[in-house]
Fold this sequence. Notes:
Blueprint: H1 3-19, E1 22-23, E2 29-30, H2 43-62, E3 68-71, E4 74-77, H3 82-98, E5 127-129, E6 132-140, E7 146-154, H4 156-168, H5 179-197, H6 206-223, H7 231-244
Antiparallel strand pairs: 1-2, 3-4, 5-6, 6-7
Helix pairs in contact: 4-6, 6-7
Amino acid sequence: MHKHAKEQWMVLSIERWLQAPVQEADGQLVPRAQGTPPGGVSSPLLANLFLHYALDRWMAQQYPQVPFERYADDAIGHCRTEREAQEVRAAIAARWKECGLELHPEKTKVVYCKDDDRRRTYPNEKFDFLGYTFRPRRSKNRFGKYFVNFSPAVSDKAVKAIRVEIRSWDLHLRSDKRIEDLSRMFNPKIRGWLPYYGRYYGSALYPPMRQLDRSLARWAERKYQKLRGHLRRAGHWVARISRRDPKLFAHWQMGVRRGSLVGAV
């Protein structure tokens, strides 16, 4: 099939899919005027297909000199100057208008990637993408010299979500469990957080991981009679376990001295 004909066939297929009625649980067919069905399994696929043709391919044709990446409906374009960035933003807004859409007025912004080579000030000097906050950060090179680098680390929103999940585990109420049981229950989740959010500036994960160790200390305080009423002593107990068996919890194997994440409890 010719490339142009294949694209036309794809567009027509998507159009028929979007216009197909929705069947309710009772068998009733409900016509759909616009959009993808909320919560429908096909909705992410259709949205991604639409954005591929409406944005990805369009950007490659109109602004091939602008590096560009997109995940779902979040996208970043890397422009060389503010003038180019404003031009691209206006062009995308016009493109969206052609498609009957509009850019999010608060989320769509031009960001200045400030570092040692770019020292101006600008209203926006950071942004969030895929659970990371990109902003100017103090870094150290392999020679021990400090410099300012525009780079990512886990975002405050992601850290808050991690803290909320840890609290939801209610570790201090699980005194019927052994620490090995807690490891089997929750370590897979911790093991998922660390490689992703800890890929850059892993030290940004230390605060929520210290919270996890404090929760383990409260669990130990309630479980063992000799530790009851002695939270600090329970914290030291957790530190000893982390040094003796660091594989129990993934964060005990982070790039810091084992047990030092427990801190003061």
